[in-house]
Amino acid sequence: MKNLSKLLLLLVLCAGADACVTQKKKGAETSKAKKGYHNLTSKYNYWFNADELFRLTVDKMNQGYQDNYNKIL
Prior knowledge:
Blueprint: H1 2-20, H2 32-64
Helix pairs in contact: 1-2
């Protein structure tokens, strides 16, 4: 059972590495695995960059805000 799981993991890693290549021969079509991989990474890159921008904006706002404890609410 352990050998089967290791073989399956190796197969998945090899397939993932093959899908990562972005260079293609002139006139050749890309495989569905490659298209799926690049669609997946582009989607999550968008979310990651949006989260990073949000986090940086909140940090900047928190640094720029100063509490005034003398002012009555």
